[in-house]
C-alpha cells in the first residue's frame, strides 16, 4: 500500500514540477495570462497560456488534451458500424457530418455504393448538420464582441433544424444514422414540408444577423483587419473550410472532390463563397453566406429525392476487405477525413481522424503573436473550433 | 470509389496521378522505394527514411503541393491482446470465425499496407494541391524510431508531429519542441502502440456482437427491400 501511495505522491510532485516549469519558462519576461481551461470564449476546455507585454500578446500557446478521448484507439476495438457512435461526438454541433466520411471510407473499401435515395438523404442531413453548426457560430460571434442578443436568436432558430434532424434520425445531437450501404431509416411522412418551413426560419435568421451585426460599427471595428491569415500561411497550416475560403482560396471539397460519390452536390446549383480579406470579418461573412447556400442546397434536394431503396445489399455482419482508404468531406468546421486501414476483419486496424479544428487551431501560436488581448477572443471565435474536434 | 467493372477499365489509367508519381520519382530519384496507385482514388508513395523531409520540400516547392493535410503514424504490429472483440456468446452462436486466432500467430513485423514497408512503425502524411485538385499520401519506414521533421517545410506539421511523438514514441529530429500535446506531462507509455493495452477492454470484456443493432430491414437475408413509403 505504501508503495502505491509513494508512487502517487511522486507522480503528483512531478506533475506540479512540470506545470511550474512551463509557467517559469513563460514568465521569463512579461506577464503570463491563463485563458481557460474554463472560459466562456473557449467553447469547452481549451487553455491558452499567453505571455503579455502590456496589452500585447508576445506568445500564445494553446494547451489541449482536457477532452482527449482517444477515439483512434477506441475505434480499433470496435466493429465498423459501432464506430459511428464514437465519431458522432467529435464535432458535437454537426454530428451527422462526422459519420459520413467514415462510412464513405468503409464503403470505398467494401466497394459498396449507397442507393440514390440514401445519397440524397445523406446529403440533406449533412447540410442540415452544417446549418445547425454554423447557425450557432453566427450568434456566438456576437457574444464574443459584447452583443448578447444574437446568440439567443441562434439558439432559438437552430432548434427548428435540430427538431427536423431529430424527427428523421431520432437524435438531436447524435443521430448515429448513417450506415454502410445507406441510411438507417427513410424520412418520416410530412418531413419535407416541415423542413422547408424550418429553412425559412433560418433564412430570416441570416437576414437578422446581417442587420444586427454586419452593418454595426463596433462589429466592423473589432473584426475588420483583425487576425489576418494570408492564403499561403493558411495552406501551410492546413486550414480548411470557411477559414481558408475567407483567405481567398476557392476550394470546397463538396465541389472539388470528384471521387467522392456518396454525396450528391453535383445535382444542385450552388456557389462556393470566398472573401479576399482573410480577417475575422471575412470568416464571419463567408459562414453567413454558407448557411444561406446550405439552405438553398437542402431546398433543391428536398424537391428531387428519388424513389427507391435506402440500403444497398450488405451482409449482416460487416467485414471490410483488407486495404487502405482516405475519404475527406467538407464538414461544417472544415475538412474532415478518415484514413482507414483494414486487415480484413470486423474492426478497423487503424483509423486516423483528420479533424478540421485541430489543423485550424494549430495556426493560433502564429496568429495570436502580436495581437491585443481583446482581439484574442474575437480571433478564436472567428476561427470557430469545437473542442471535441480538436481533442478527438 | 466502388464502381462496376466496365467503368473500372475506363479509369484504369489515372493520368494526373501517374504524372504526379513520375514527377516525384524524377525529383527524388532512388529515394522513392515503392508506390501504389488506386486509379481515381489515391496515390501512395513510400520514400526512404532519410528522404522524408526532402520529400516534403520537393512536393511543396517544386510540385506546388502547398496544402498540408495531416501527418500521423501506424504501428503495424498485430495487437498481442487479440482482437478484444470476441465474446464467448458470439463464439457459441457461430458469429465469430475461429480462424482469427490463427491470424494472430502469423504476426508479421513489417508493414503490409499499400506501398509496403519493412519496419513496424511507419509515418504517413498527406499533402494536397488546390490547383491540381490532387492529393498524395506519403509513407516512410521508421526503423530506429527517429525521422526528420516536416516543420521546416510545413509549420502546420508541428502539432501533428507532437501527437505522433506522444502516441507512438517516434522522435522527429529538428522539431522545435516535442512536448506532449494531449497527454499529461508525466504520462508513461505511448497509447497508440499496439502493445499498449486498452485497459477498459481487458478489465471488462465486450459483451459481444449480439449487442449490435441489426442493419435496418436486413434481418431476413441480409438484403434490403424497397421501402414502402419510398415506393408509394
Mean pLDDT of chain B: 74
CATH architecture of the largest domain in chain A: Orthogonal Bundle
Major pleated sheet of chain A: 3 strands, antiparallel
Radius of gyration of chain B: 22 Å
Helix run count of chain A: 16
What is the CA–CA distance across the termini of chain B? 31 Å
Instruction: Pick out the low-confidence regions of chain A.
Output: none
What level of helicity do the residues of chain B show?
25-40%
Run of helices and strands of chain B: HHEEHEHHEEEHEHH
Q: End-to-end distance of chain A, in Å?
A: 35 Å
The largest sheet of chain B, given as strand count, sense and whether it forms a barrel, is: 5 strands, mixed
Q: Output the strand order for the largest sheet of chain A.
A: 1-2-3
CATH superfamily of the largest domain in chain A: Cytochrome-c3 Hydrogenase, chain B
Describe the model.
The complex is a heterodimer of chains A (392) and B (232). Chain A is mainly alpha-helical and 392 residues long. Chain A contains 16 helices and eight strands. Chain A has two domains: 2-63, no CATH class; 71-391, Cytochrome-c3 Hydrogenase, chain B (Orthogonal Bundle), CATH 1.10.645.10. Chain A has a three-stranded antiparallel β-sheet with strand order 1-2-3. In chain A, strands 6-7-8 form a three-stranded antiparallel β-sheet. Chain A is globular, with a radius of gyration of 22 Å. With 232 residues, chain B is α/β, with parallel strands linked by helices. Chain B has a domain at 5-76 and 111-197: NADH:ubiquinone oxidoreductase Nqo5 subunit (Beta Polymerase, domain 2), CATH 3.30.460.80. Helix content of chain B is 28%, strand content 19%. Chain B has a five-stranded mixed β-sheet with strand order 1-2-5-4-3. In chain B, strands 6-7 form a two-stranded parallel sheet. In chain B, a hairpin with a 4-residue loop joins strand 4 (121-129) and strand 5. The model of chain B is unreliable at 1-11, 98-108 and 220-232 (pLDDT under 50).
